[in-house]
């Protein structure tokens, strides 16, 4: 294992300290329990948005704290869910009286810990559970679809509504709507190494890829031989389209997300290939996002997310945002 | 069962888990994400660090401290599930006036039931519940049937082992292994293995006392 680290025990703390210092105009990092808030307190009467999850997916979620998006983020250990004490401390800090909306990715650990926090919390709160990963069949025989990159889209759009005075119920409803209108699928070429583990999470051959991979390198639909970028992109989009069923001339957001170890050069190449296919189907790409937003440490790979956009979603996607990882309109 | 008993069992569990760490890690890398052993080891270490704080506390407070420590210190599913187990045990009726083996079995069974609710997992889903639920049922039945205490705990050891091995041929329907589908078959669930080791350690210490 080669990583920039001094010791596995201090890995998260030092990274958070660096993040807090580098973006002190936007965020405040709090320790023991760990959580990140905006540098400025939540406006009175504004619903507070709190997300969180295992670390190793940066910039999600800490990099999405700031004006127009999250009020707080709770980072767990690498690839391990945060704990209720973090959520409760964060909620106490950012709840301005209008309630707290938890945005939770559908992974068992995250779901259970956020659920316990919600049970222990005194004030009004709601949760949005994201499950955009179409690689997993949603049936009673699985934990259900995983929450992956569309979580970023949910946080952006609901963040805007909260900023513009949306109530707790309205924010929850919009979050569910964005999630329902989104589908994602990813592919990995290489594994990733959790610092405390010291060795790769899974084995994968030089000529292989994990198709439908999750954001911790957990298996997807199948192990395939490597293919061309256009073939991979087509297969990802076909899987998403089959689930999301965008109609001809429907407007969508095309979000090409890097998993940490794939250069932007290749992400833009995927974007080009995705555009080829969507153009053929007359699906209108009206907004785009390309970059590393929902990562899996140093894993080589990428995911594609499509979100169907109506006027409401477009408006909240376009509104201004100022976080460490996303900034426009300000 | 005293607070001192809990602390001593935790120390024995630490030794057993450490001795089997690489096996558990390997099981988890085959069908999980490889962090289970670290979570378990961290949890046990945190509980042992509580020794000075809890050794003179009444049982309910000691169990509650353990629950909060496990919950906040482990994270992930393990933290929530083990936290729920101890939190529920801490709520046991009248446990500050002494806990005999029957009472211990009663609060353990309540705890297992709460864990089942929290994780929404039952027997046959390739999780630690394949060990905990049969063990809980076996212990309760042993008390109902007025079996000898040593016989009850001997049976529990066997039931735990059987439950652990039963996960090998199961499809996983909960947790990360569920994403593997058929690929999870043929592998023992790491959570079932670590729970079985813990159950075995506690039961053996009762048998040897």
Walk me through the topology.
The complex is a heterodimer of chains A (330) and B (209).
Chain A lengths: L10 H12 L4 E4 L4 E4 L9 E8 L10 E2 L4 E7 L5 H11 L5 E6 L2 H13 L4 E6 L19 H14 L4 H13 L1 E7 L19 E4 L10 E4 L3 H16 L6 E8 L5 H17 L3 E8 L9 E8 L2 H8 L2 E3 L3 E2 L2
Parallel strand pairs in A: 3-5, 3-6, 6-7, 11-12
Antiparallel strand pairs in A: 1-2, 2-5, 4-14, 8-9, 8-13, 9-10, 11-13, 14-15
Helix pairs in contact in A: 2-3, 4-5, 4-8, 6-7
Chain B lengths: L2 H17 L1 H11 L4 H14 L1 H4 L4 H16 L1 H15 L10 H19 L9 H16 L4 H18 L23 H18 L2
Helix pairs in contact in B: 1-3, 1-10, 2-10, 3-5, 5-6, 6-7, 7-8, 8-9, 8-10, 9-10
Which labels suit this protein?
heterodimer, A: 330 residues, alpha/beta, Rossmann fold, 2 domains, six-stranded mixed sheet, B: 209 residues, mainly alpha, Serine Threonine Protein Phosphatase 5, Tetratricopeptide repeat
Question: What can you see in these coordinates?
Answer:
- The complex is a heterodimer of chains A (330) and B (209).
- By secondary structure, chain A is of the alpha/beta class.
- Chain A has two domains: 14-180, 3-Layer(aba) Sandwich (Rossmann fold), CATH 3.40.50.10440; 182-308, Dihydroxyacetone kinase, domain 2 (Hypothetical Protein Tm841, Chain: A,domain 3).
- Helices cover 32% and strands 25% of the residues of chain A.
- The radius of gyration of chain A is 19 Å and the shape is globular.
- Chain B has a single domain (3-207), classed as Alpha Horseshoe (Serine Threonine Protein Phosphatase 5, Tetratricopeptide repeat), CATH 1.25.40.340.
- In chain B, 71% of the residues lie in helices and 0% in strands.
- In chain B, helix 1 packs antiparallel against helix 3 (36-49), helix 2 packs antiparallel against helix 10 (190-207) and helix 8 packs antiparallel against helix 9.
- Chain B is globular.
- The chains are: A alpha/beta (330), B mainly alpha (209).
- Chain A binds chain B through residues 33, 54, 76-77, 79-86, 107-109, 112-113, 115-116, 136, 140-143, 146, 194, 196-197, 199, 201-202, 214, 216-220, and chain B through 25, 29, 32-35, 38-39, 68, 71-81, 83-84, 118-119, 171, 173-176, 178-180, 183.
